[in-house]
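Quick one - inputs below.
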Amino acid sequence: MAEETKPPEKSQSGSEFGKTTRRKFISRLGMAGLLTSAGSAFAQPSPAELRPPKARDAAPPAEGAIPVSLRVNGKQYDLRIDPRTTLLDCLREHLHLTGSKKGCDHGQCGACTVHINGRRMNSCLCFAAMYQGDEITTIEGLGQPENLHPMQAAFVSHDAYQCGYCTSGQIMSAVALLTEQCGPEDAEVKECMSGNICRCGAYQNIVAAIQSVRENTSRQKAG
Amino acid sequence: MKLFELTRADDPEQAIASGAKATTAQQGADIRFIAGGTNLVDFMKLNVETPKKLVDVNHLPFSKIEKLPDGGLKIGATVRNTDLAQDPTVRKDYAVLSEALLSGASVQLRNMATTAGNLLQRTRCMYFRDTAMPCNKREPGSGCAAITGVNRSLAILGTSEQCIATNPSDMNVALAALEATIHIRGTKGERTVPIGDFHLLPGNTPQRETVLEPGDLITHVTLPPPAPGSHSLYLKLRDRASFEFALASAAVVITADGGRMTRARVALGGVGTKPWRSPEAEAELTGQPATQAVFQKAADAALRDAKPQSQNGFKVELAKRCLVHALKLVTQTA
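Output:
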């Protein structure tokens, strides 16, 4: 595909995006399935059980849970969690910030990348309780559908993803890269992005998206 | 993952006192210091490490890089790999260290990983990582599955009948060539250990990887002043161009005067059970002209005692070519 750099079509991305998410859709499907299969043999689920997981509280704190205060995307959260909880699981399961993804869970794929005090890290290898008092930023804190971060917009306009599972990690790394020591060439961008795996192989367009943001930034600085 | 108690040390003495209660500071330790966690958390998820207590040492005052009065460098235990690699003094005077660090892991991991943690990085041998398999390092006496199994990436130098696991660190190889000193504070006070003595050969006790005892806390690493007129370089060969462990690597620090090498320090990575300093290669280089023939003699000397396994015989030639090429590159710039 030719690498055109069309701006995102704002009329579309602004209005529809965010009303029904894939997560909401799938969770509703799941609830419908539960109703159909369990309908005759079991009692109907109560309305509380039917609420999507997002609205439900996390499981009650396990034995040995400890108080943990985290600052995520500028908001303070006071929790009681098992000390084994990784930052990734804490974000996803307790704070319901599901933009950060679990891929390998061993620091090899980069899908869980978040910023801690401005630096990108693998949240799957962090115990949440060790990051109290730090400034944590996730993909949700970067931009919103109606107000995308320039890197998010560049990923859209450059078609820099296919299935999208690695995308939030790719974008968190790409945004961090803007302030890191990284040479100007594509090869240097690839080296700096090697901690983020894309099994669909959208690498070409990911590099193009990053380079376009870097070019715009340096042009703005020069102008 | 097994449940653990998480505590935080606010001063070194507190950390040492906590650590001293451990039954061992080696494989299977019940109390572990944790900083970056990139290695330890990974192994805890695999149940290879099952500490009952973690002591967070991130808040100890060991996060600085300082120039020493003698012209050397002091590197704090919790200095992150990214910061060490990008330090202007390291880049200028100890290029081999910066290059080694930047050749390892990913930016995310380097932002987390620390100097002391990297010194203690565990092997990538797949049988060590898999609790369903025998492994003398993880479970002494259970046998070595690697010797008769998949051993393509494992060691050819410093192995024993019990263990052929490779030390995976790039940083350690550079520190070996730079003759670093490890500074340790423990229950009996402070002591220093040269990097060459810090890691142990597997022998009959592959579960013992370093000289550390319960309560021992690495506080910093020092580097001697850079040898006047020396040039250094790290060359890493691997299956992928990035984010992959070395099949073979070479750290070289060479001083040349009029085409003749007056001082040589050589260490190999990816091939040894510990960071592999080669005095044999250094002896072949010192006082000799910087020619291909001399480099080849040094490489042959470095690998003379190599014991290849069923799948890693290629590493003997690969390591030699790696060293020859590294020497060629570093003397071109000299």
